[in-house]
Specification:
229 residues, Rossmann fold, DNA polymerase, domain 1, elongated, YjjG family noncanonical pyrimidine nucleotidase, PGP-like_dom2
């Protein structure tokens, strides 16, 4: 069923449009080679991915700062695979990761197709918890910047999704209203509940979450947005 009265569509970036896991994995391959680090790449990633997700949850909740996130997720992953790395090397890897992450810019299937479909009839925007300079590079290097009228990030506002302030800031920046807006994202807590908490429509995109999300609009692929918009 089509949503009525929507003029503005807000997207999350990582894991929604920008294929974070794929680009991140390629970045680790690159920086391990740069730093001559002979580590089992697949073994590292198996530990790193859930550790990174947990650090981002703590970051959203204000329990860790940016630098602690960047260092801790690597340090904990190396400890989990019992691979000894000097703290100075971990710090360099952390910096190299941020520097090279936006050099890989795979988007999810149908990202361009759905942006082309929506662009003529809706104002498109981004709300992201990612860091300002990194996120901007991702958007520019993946060649999707021209689609979006505004980009709101957590560093700009000083709070992170699901805090209502970041949603209100994005809506004000876009010059629209809650009633005319819809949020699309992969994180149920940050994107979907965050939007619903201010009375904003939301569409959950996540093919891997097997939890039943009753009374919530849900899709598995971006192209399926056509049923709502």
């Amino acid at each position: 069923m089509k949503l009525k009265g929507i003029t503005d569509v807000f997207f999350d970036l990582d894991h929604t449009l920008w294929d974070f896991d794929r680009n991140s994995a390629l970045t680790f391959q690159k920086i391990f080679k740069i730093n001559n680090l002979n580590v089992d790449y697949n073994k590292f990633l198996r530990e790193y991915v859930p550790i990174n997700q947990n650090y981002w949850k703590l970051f959203r909740e204000g329990k860790v700062e940016k630098e602690a996130l960047r260092f801790g997720r690597l340090n904990d992953a190396f400890n989990a695979i019992h691979f000894s790395v000097n703290p100075d090397v971990i710090q360099k890897l952390s910096n190299d990761y941020i520097e090279h992450l936006s050099s890989f810019n795979y988007l999810f299937d149908n990202t361009i197709a759905i942006l082309d479909y929506l662009n003529p009839n809706f104002n498109l925007h981004i709300i992201t918890n990612g860091f300002d300079k990194v996120q901007q590079k991702k958007i520019e290097n993946s060649k999707i910047s021209t689609y979006f009228k505004t980009v709101t990030n957590s560093e700009m506002v000083g709070v992170k999704k699901p805090d209502p302030k970041i949603f209100y800031h994005a809506i004000q920046l876009a010059g629209t209203t809650v009633e005319q807006s819809v949020m699309i994202g992969d994180n149920f807590e940050a994107d979907i509940l965050g939007a619903h908490n201010i009375g904003m429509e939301a569409i959950y995109i996540n093919a891997t979450d097997k939890t039943k999300r009753e009374n919530h609009k849900r899709i598995n692929d971006l192209i399926d947005l056509k049923q709502f918009l």
